[in-house]
Amino acid sequence: MTGEQRARRYAVIGTGAVGGFYGARLQQAGRSVHFLARSDREVIARQGLDVRSKDGDFSLFPVAVYGDVREMPRCDVVIVALKTTHNALLAELLPPVLADDGVVVMLQNGLGSEEAAAAVVGAERVVGGLSFVCAHKLGPGKVDHLDYGQVTLGAYAEGYAPQGVTAATAAVATDLRAAGIAVEVAADLLQARWRKLVWNIPFNGLSVILDERTNRMMADPAIRTLARALMEEVVQGAAASGRTIPETFIERMLEHTQNMIPYHTSMKLDYDAGRPLEIEAIYSRPLAMAAAAGVDLPRIAVLTRQLQFLDRRRRGL
Amino acid sequence: MTGEQRARRYAVIGTGAVGGFYGARLQQAGRSVHFLARSDREVIARQGLDVRSKDGDFSLFPVAVYGDVREMPRCDVVIVALKTTHNALLAELLPPVLADDGVVVMLQNGLGSEEAAAAVVGAERVVGGLSFVCAHKLGPGKVDHLDYGQVTLGAYAEGYAPQGVTAATAAVATDLRAAGIAVEVAADLLQARWRKLVWNIPFNGLSVILDERTNRMMADPAIRTLARALMEEVVQGAAASGRTIPETFIERMLEHTQNMIPYHTSMKLDYDAGRPLEIEAIYSRPLAMAAAAGVDLPRIAVLTRQLQFLDRRRRGL
What we know:
The structure is a homodimer.
Chain A: E1 9-13, H1 17-28, E2 32-36, H2 41-47, E3 49-53, E4 58-60, E5 64-66, E6 75-80, H3 90-97, E7 98-107, H4 113-121, E8 126-139, E9 142-155, H5 167-178, E10 183-185, H6 189-209, H7 214-218, H8 221-240, H9 247-258, H10 266-272, H11 279-292, H12 298-314
Parallel strand pairs in A: 1-2, 1-6, 2-5, 3-9, 6-7, 7-8, 9-10
Antiparallel strand pairs in A: 3-4, 8-9
Helix pairs in contact in A: 3-4, 6-8, 6-10, 6-12, 8-9, 8-11, 11-12
């Protein structure tokens, strides 16, 4: 990774709500940011980026936006903010844009992102990223940031051996903090990913299956009981991977969800828009990781099967 | 129970699809049948009963229909074809209509029906009934019989001790067979109830949760896998009650469902009509019976919680 002699140059691969939000914050803080967009490229080139945010609205113009990675400059930090359902494209997207000593930050949900990137660029150049943000795309280049925004970073190594704080994670954390983002660097990336699944597994799935927002689900005693039981299975899955998540974390997540503003999860937004659901990353891989350690997670398996059916039906498959 | 000196007199409590179908068959075969109906009473009194059936349509007029059990004659056999969600009414409905030596046939789904009737009339006067019929109500006094039709009867005793074939079950079986109904008398009622749950637990719940018919669910590999896993949990629940259901029965049910005509389950029809769902009988009681024996059925518990939420939301509770 390039040292301190010049500001780090960023690429954002996938300019949806997440990529648009963090990329805009970095550019607003003075970093050089290069955005990859597909269908939205022309509108963003013409109008820039608009962020409506609970921390204050802002607009950026001009924005360096590209429709093809081969037109982009090589970047020190490549933030991948695609849906995991597009990770088959990484082999084509990453090599042209990554500087020789650059790093890739996989800002995605679930499990499997780092392995997918490592297969293309090597494990030593991969950083895991988890965003805790309520945001959605209002239109091309238009992001609505409703709540939260913090990021957790963690260096990746094959088999998820904990790496502590590395030069790369520290450098990206510095830039994000300068852009006003709260950042935690996790010593153990896999534990951070399992912790995030404690929320994602119950609420992403149930929001699609029950066609409901978080607040209405949390208001129902049956769903509170079910969400807790699912969270306990996630904790068992983490334990099967040798990661301990304390019971108090479950309490904290439930309380936190009760106090969230009414919210459609990212999976619900994908479902309503007819996009493929991130079932593989959020459900199938955690199940497979636990199963490889001999641990059965039956409640999570039920949600997985229901979601697979709904996803196929919604997309006419 | 009255002997052979005169034909047995029947009451049908609840003249919906199930009560209307079996009651009409009995009357068609020459039995004296007295129907209790609530909102449909006037139409049935005026127009009789109409059965559209895959075995041949038929109509009955006149029909002895009542709006109040206190107007009905005392009957040798009282067939209760109410939804289980109305079983709180049994204390009021059964005593006026049951002859001194009569029996009550609880033609209902799930578990708990016999206990509810026994609390009113005594266990020795209760027979369990299971109907395997695809039928729905087209309107007041109008039944559409799509497929199947067989009935399983089993004498009840406290704690579900197997009773073999009793005089009462043999007598009711004789009358139903004379009416063209295939009847099996189960020596062990509780085993028969668990066997029926092997189908009802996966397909009633999933049809509501996924808003889908049986054929479309069975066409999906994820739902076939889930249905099988749920059936295996029902078999574990039966085992916890000391009842053995062979693995081949699961295969038979899956194959059978694949070959059924496209079908909305009774729970889906209830849901779409805004009626309360039979969650207690089909889900909560089996779960509780297994839990009392120390057996956890986590997949069934997930469906139960989802259904409780959907039922409350649908009815605005």
